[in-house]
Amino acid sequence: MINNGYLLGLFGGTATTAFSSATSAALAQAARKQPTPPWSPNAVAPEPDALVRAALGGRKLINEDAAQLDVKSASADYRKLFALYQGLSSLNALVNRSATKGVSNLELTQLTKRFSSGLGEIGSWLSASEFDDVRMVQGTTKAISKTTAAVPRDSARAVIGPIHEGSIATPVAAFQGDVRFSITIKTPVGVSDFATEAVPIDLADMGATPRTLDNVVSHINTQLEAAGVETRFGREQVKAEPRTLQVNGKTVTLPASPDKWALVIRGSSTETVGFTAAETSDAVYVVQSSGAAGGGQLLKFQSDGGAATAPTAAGIGETHWVEGRLSQDALPDGVETVRASAVGPDGSLWIVADVTAGPDSQPIKGVQDVALMKYDPAGRLVATRTLGAASTAGGYAIAIDANGQVAVAGSVTGALNTSSTDAGKTGVVADVADSFVTVFDKDGQEVWTQRRGARAADEATSVSFGADGTVYIGGRAKSAVTGGVAVGGWDGYVQAFKAGEPYPTAGIVSKATATTQFGTASDDSVDAMTIDGSNLYTAGVENGRAVVRRFTLDADGAPTLASTRDLGAISGDIAGVSVSGGKVILTGTSRDSGLTAGTETTAHSGGKDVFVAALSADLTPAAGDRMTWYGGAGEDSAADVKIHDGKVWITGVADRDPAADETDPTKAYLVRLDPLSGAVEYERTWSGDGDQARPMTLAVATDGASVLDRLGFPQGEIDQSDSKRLVDATSLRVGDRFYVSPADGGRSVPVTIAAKDTLATLARKIEIASNGALKVTVASEGGSVTGKDGEITTTTGGFQRLSIMARDGKAGAVLTPGETGRDALAGLGLSSGFIGASSGDDVRKTFGVDLPGALNLADPAARKTAGERLQAAMKAVRDAYRALDPATATAAAASGPVPAYLTNQLANYQAALDRLTG
Length: 918
Known about the structure:
Elements: H1 4-10, H2 21-31, H3 48-56, H4 76-98, H5 105-128, E1 135-137, E2 140-142, E3 144-146, E4 151-152, E5 157-165, E6 180-189, E7 193-202, H6 213-226, E8 232-238, E9 243-247, E10 250-254, E11 260-266, E12 272-276, E13 281-290, E14 295-302, E15 325-330, E16 335-343, E17 349-355, E18 369-375, E19 381-386, E20 392-400, E21 406-413, E22 434-440, E23 446-452, E24 458-465, E25 471-477, E26 491-500, E27 509-518, E28 528-532, E29 535-542, E30 545-553, E31 559-569, E32 572-580, E33 583-590, E34 599-602, E35 609-616, E36 626-630, E37 640-644, E38 647-653, E39 668-673, E40 680-686, E41 693-705, H7 708-711, E42 716-717, H8 726-729, E43 737-742, E44 749-752, H9 759-769, E45 774-781, E46 784-789, E47 792-796, E48 799-806, E49 813-817, H10 824-828, E50 833-835, E51 846-848, H11 860-883, H12 886-894, H13 900-916
Helix pairs in contact: 3-4, 4-5, 4-11
């Protein structure tokens, strides 16, 4: 018999009866078993009811000491994975219990709170735990992570329209008749001055030339060229898409409508474009919900009177036109409701909306936030500012002063981060709302915010500016507000705030300077408030009665009650209070409950009607007091009211059947009344999609309507740029932060948002915090090409976002959220977790449980989402377990190339055999 060792010795090999050390290790690893996981059929799983009881009893969801391992030599990673899986199972049990039929509201509240705290517990545990052979992170695992929050780039290009539908060879309806306006071009002169040139446009100068889109654009550009400016006009096609509708539960596709065409303004970086018109009329904006789904719309009406030509038809793509309506524009997706709107000194419309989802480029941090939206006079959304609430906020009131400053008031639950200690209420009152007021400058940049609250619930429902800049809020509170004394039930209150700079470079500091709380032992409120000189008026329902109060303001702005007027029992609501022509004008709705306020000009019509009461300025009954009722025999509402030039504008739902269902037809109205004579001077009614139209707010703009409206041009300058500060462009607040930690464990470094941070400065902060492990760039998306010089292309518009990846040769890093109420990742739209390579040779495998802190059990849809995310998280743990399987590692090792030494030995062995066997 031939000795193999002899052969191998002759040809460069060796032989031994023992395995090599590498082979022995591999066989030992292959022979080792993994411990039995808690999801194995052989494992005894805790009963779901027991998990729920333990969780509600305050027991920790993750307990590494309780994790059972049936293999003594098993890695510590197994114990951590099993403990994490058990914690996820407990959360899953809470979700399933919350979805059980018959669960009481009390228990559901307990389940919701424990689920929320459990998410935080798991997140904290993952941030602190270090694994040896895998990497587990709270969020996701990505090679590249981009912020969904984006900052708009400046744009010298604006799309106006659509203005025409069909063939471009057809004359445009909007260009017919008397069309005269001016294009203003403002250019910089020196360091701080500007020169403005008005270029008159009169389409009558075209003579017999058909007023087609191309012909009008050519005419306008000829005038602009003659004026020596760079700005030009063009056209852009808006391609029509096939339409679909539901018929008997089936989707039917309809042919696409004709293509639409829009005007395009192509400006330059050195020219600011604007528009003016000589003939104007007042304009009225109405924000409404339309259709069964309640989609928001912004309507613009032209008032009677004035010199502007009245509109005669709907614009392109508009529906349910009514005489006098100039335009109809959809509000952004995510707008839940709108409770207040006002027109600024420059003619811009500001609206206060509750949003459940921000725009695609502006994610919100919590369940619902307050958004301040700025529209130009043509109905184009030019800026959005979110409050930045970590949980829930609602906006109730708006006021604008003569300088364009905007104050917004409402309520907030949870953290708002107005200071480093503002984490919201805790304990049993954690879900109780507080009042807030925020002041923005004319450009929409936040100046200051105050959060004020009683121990129990309170909310600010009104806001006004005093003559000296003092900001007043009015509302209601269920207990004593700071500086006030509780009376009983819900009380009305008024608070005053002043802001200033203690010393140069100190920044604006605001503080409450006065508080008064009032009411009865029953429930009371301040539903409306106004200031006239040194008098402050409140109006509200106090113990079921309509009550107006007058406070005098002293030199420091502190209010003192001077007089009260009780108008009697009210079966309805207060909509507004104002002062005009020496009269206090009170508006609301009520049934015929005995409400009185002097001589009745128009009688109650039945059901619930709108009332307008004109009272003396000192609130004492007088012969000149008047009471006017407006409405039909059904239910009428007063969604909003404004006083303009001594007349009362009201909008709401008209004459609805008291027995009507929620889905039955609803008709909207807009009316102007004389508060002294009761005469109806202007009246419009209209329907909406699905016969549903529900106005929410209105605002009046002096001289805000003109021929520019049918052309789609705004009066005034076109906004070409917006703030690049992250605290303006996103829902981030100063002091929000997140943490960056090394990929393989180590100290976390905070990244904190500062007032002047932009995408560029934040990118640098992240790179420094990661110690160079991450590469962060500012990436541009969208935009339009405006020029080309050789290989260099110039673009304007679009958005910019942060793009984060591991730097070459680096393992990457882990992002973790900031503290409750201060998490910057949510405002940036960044997922927590690992950024870097998560698989491959010589790379530690990484798994993310991806459980967002916003998960909740508020409703069936939220519970379904929470359950799905938990199932995915539990799968991630199972995947990590499989990655630890020695067989997986052996298979991975075996799949690589054969070592060179072994290849040579085998070749020599084969040569020896060949020689011996001839």
